[in-house]
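Exercise 7b. C-alpha cells:
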C-alpha cells in the first residue's frame, strides 16, 4: 500500500538511493554517466538532504510497505514557491504516485495561503515524461530561462495556479 508522509531524518539514506536511480533514469540522454555521478554526489548525499529539510523547504516521501519509492521537495526562492524535486524509483513511474505527492504538497501550500508555484525543467525531460503538461502546469505561463550548467543553458519554467 502506498503512503504519502512528511520526510523524517531516518529516511535520508533511502532518499539518496531513490535519487540515484531516478537521476540515472531521467538524465541518461542529457548528461554523461560521470556528470550524473557528480550531480548525485554533490546534491543527493544525506547531509544535503537533511540540511534541505528546513523552514523554507519541505519534503514528502512515498512509501510502499515501508520502502521509500519517491519524494517531492518544495521550497521558497525569491518569494515564490518552487517545486524543486519530484523523483520516483523508475519502476513506480506511471502509477499515480507523482500525482499523490503533488497533491499532498498542494494541500500544504493551500494551508499556507499559497495558490501558485513554479518549476524549472529541462525541455528533454519535460518531453520524456509529459507529467507536468498533463497536469496543466503551464496554463499560466511557460517561459525559457537560463539554466545552471552548460548542458542546461535553457530550461522551461512553468507556473501553476490551483
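Sequence design result:
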Amino acid at each position: 500500500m502506498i503512503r504519502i508522509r512528511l520526510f523524517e531524518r531516518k529516511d535520508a539514506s533511502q532518499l539518496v538511493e531513490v535519487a540515484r536511480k531516478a537521476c540515472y533514469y531521467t538524465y541518461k540522454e542529457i548528461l554523461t554517466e560521470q556528470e550524473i555521478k557528480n550531480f548525485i554526489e554533490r546534491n543527493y548525499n544525506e547531509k544535503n538532504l537533511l540540511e534541505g529539510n528546513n523552514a523554507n523547504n519541505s519534503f514528502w516521501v512515498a512509501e510502499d510497505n515501508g520502502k521509500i519509492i519517491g519524494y517531492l521537495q518544495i521550497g521558497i526562492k525569491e518569494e515564490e514557491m518552487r517545486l524543486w524535486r519530484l523523483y520516483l524509483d523508475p519502476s513506480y513511474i506511471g502509477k499515480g504516485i507523482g500525482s499523490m505527492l503533488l497533491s499532498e504538497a498542494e494541500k500544504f501550500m493551500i494551508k499556507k495561503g499559497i495558490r501558485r508555484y513554479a518549476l524549472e525543467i529541462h525541455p528533454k525531460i519535460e518531453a520524456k515524461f509529459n507529467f507536468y503538461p498533463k497536469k496543466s502546469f503551464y496554463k499560466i505561463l511557460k517561459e525559457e530561462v537560463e539554466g545552471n550548467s552548460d548542458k542546461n543553458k535553457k530550461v522551461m519554467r512553468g507556473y501553476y495556479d490551483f
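Instructor comment: Residues 139-143 have pLDDT under 50 and may be disordered. The radius of gyration is 15 Å.
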